[in-house]
Amino acid sequence: MSTVYPSMSVADPHPPFLSTGQKIATGIGITGLCLMVLSIFNRDVASSSTLFWLSLLLTSLGVVGFSWSQYQSKPAGIKNNGVWFDSLTNRGILAWSAGIIITFFYVCLYWYPQLLGLNPEGANTKIVAFFDPLSTALKGQPASQWFVYGTLYTMAILFFGVKFILKYRHNRYQVLRTISVMFFQLIFAFLLPEFLERLNQPSMDLKNMWPLNYYFFFDWNLDKLINGGNLGLFMLFWGIAMILIISPVLTYFYGKRWYCSWVCGCGGLAETAGDPFRHLSDKSLKAWKIERWMIHGVLVFAIIMTAMVIYTYITGQSQILFLNSYSIREWYGFLIGAAFSGVIGVGFYPLMGSRVWCRFGCPMAAILGIQQRFFSRFRITTNGGQCISCGNCSTYCEMGIDVRSYAQKGQNIVRASCVGCGICAAVCPRGVLRLENGSVDINSRTDQKRTIHIPATEVGIL
After folding, report:
1. Which of 103, 119, 362, 385 is most buried (most C-beta within 10 Å)?
2. Burial of 230 by CB count in 10 Å (0-12 exposed, 13-18 middle, 19+ buried)?
């Protein structure tokens, strides 16, 4: 039974955009965030363990409660109503405000952590001190700016991961891969390294590998692993095995989705917190050309930088021709590791879509994409006869792929940029798209077309 909203107007001038439950959840979540923001200005709030845990509780209840109220009472299925009319999801004032705030936070985090309250010589203050209770509980020492970042990053993936699961609960693939990225972020990227650091053992995100982990072959990291006993040597060989054996094998069988959509923290944040912005990815031919040059340019930069770093580590000579290996790695860390992957990669979610870094800059995505394009069994198959050209698949492809053009021709989709998130298949109302693994047509799969086109000259009336 539909709800009637009494009004003197034939068309209700005040439609209820938010339910009572969503309003309550919004108030609870904002209260939790306000406690965190207050820590910047109030020393008592910053040093209170009780207020920290209260902030964490209220924020999580707010996000989960809002998501539950938004999706649980409605039939399962994709609900993207009004995304092009909302200020936050269509580059309005809220989107620009969010982008500026996130970008400013990242700039402070990377280059001005003292503004956030970091004090290496004494007690932390402001928002860094606000996270001291959790840092002390996990690793027995005060928080750093990277601990603050890791905590917020993990919270975003967990809280918005619940929202994502509720939204796509009708799709088993989406539920499972979201649980996977939540697990790998919480355990492998956050808790395990912190516990190892508490035990004075070498710590490393075991799911992170070169070239995404660009500092893996830096001298200080190699020395740490080599001198870290059996655990350090295991991490060293594990990292090399990930590059040379594990990643190529998994990419052959499952495509780059095994990493970009099931394991990677960058992809995890893009899929969960960045889900409302996925339709903002540029689908133009110009964007595609820029993408190819940029992402492979970063890969070449990473290879040259790493080769120079390894040469310096082995020979002790930092100068190669007119290039200095230490200067090269500093520039790479500044331009790619910080400015691109962090500041632009996340700060521009509300303006350029959720996969800015993955699409234009990630060298790991570039390597996996090359393997997927030429050597992988993964593809998205299409049934062109069922396509009604609604365009949902292309609209919500976060990697800027015009999926509809493939579907209309019945042509399998094998693109280096595709991360196999499966959203195109999830939003298709006709079941045209399927994510598959197979090697039957591995050499000709991009040429095969399943739609039969009959010339107009051959059509007649009996």
Report:
1. 362
2. exposed
